[in-house]
Amino acid sequence: MTRSPWIRAGLVALAVIVVDQLSKSAVRGGIVPGEEHKLLPGLALVDTRNHGVAFGFLPNDGVAVTVVIALALVALLAYFARHAARPLIWLPTGMLVGGALGNIIDRVREGSVTDFIKLPLGWPPFNLADTSITLGVLILIFIIERPRSA
Fold first, then answer.
1. Which of 87, 101, 86, 90 is nearest to 133 (CA)?
2. What phi-psi label fits residue 88: left (phi over 0), alpha (psi between -120 and 50 degrees) or beta?
3. DSSP secondary structure of 73-90
4. pLDDT tens, 34-47?
5. Residue 41: burial class (beta carbons within 10 Å; 0-12, 13-18, 19+)
6. Whole-model pTM?
7. Is 134 exposed, middle or buried (0-12, 13-18, 19+ CB in 10 A)?
8. Could you point out which of 29, 54, 88, 95 has its C-alpha 20 to 30 Å from the C-alpha of 136?
9. Which residues have a catalytic role annotated?
10. How far is it, in rounded angstroms, from Cα 133 to Cα 137?
11. How many of the other CB atoms lie within 10 Å of CB of 20?
């Protein structure tokens, strides 16, 4: 086993956690809950709390949320351990781990996750950890599904 993909994934995860936590801290310190700050057309910043997982699924069920997140991380890391030599697999792994840990930090410290990016048409607010998780899943699917070179 080579350590380089693990180190890269760890550095990506650390970067995601730092940016995520800094952005959430800025929102908690600068936006009053209930206020909406228009940033761009169709994009606003808000300060809301999510007690469930993505888009409010499993609200107020901390045990179920913890179990779902733990199982997902174990499965991801097991897959990564078996496929660490695949090119760029460390990138989505780090994004997914960093995003999950960024939201777990909120749950432990605040009892809920700070969401602050609001899109139009009733889309639920989300945060940078959620964005990292979503992009991480898409990149992981692309890496898994792309044909291996001959």
1. 101
2. left
3. HHHHHHHHHHHTTSTTTH
4. 889 998 998 999 99
5. exposed
6. 0.88
7. middle
8. 29
9. 115, 130
10. 6
11. 24
Which residues are CB-contacts of 49 (< 8 A; sequence separation ≥ 6)?
33, 110, 112, 113, 114, 115
Query: Which DSSP symbol is given to 99?
Result: H
Residue 97 in tokens: 């781990």
Both structure tokens of 38: 């228009």
The answer to whether residues 98 and 129 touch, using CB atoms and an 8 Å cutoff, is yes
Token duo for residue 91: 């990138």
Tell me the HSE value of 22 on the side-chain side, using a 13 A CA sphere.
Answer: 6
Of the candidates 123, 116, 130, 112, the one whose C-alpha atom is nearest the C-alpha of residue 35 is 116
Task: Encode pLDDT of 34-84 as tens digits.
Answer: 889 998 998 999 999 887 666 555 556 667 777 888 899 999 999 999 999
Tokens of 135: 């992009």
Q: Are 139 and 26 in contact (CB under 8 A)?
A: no
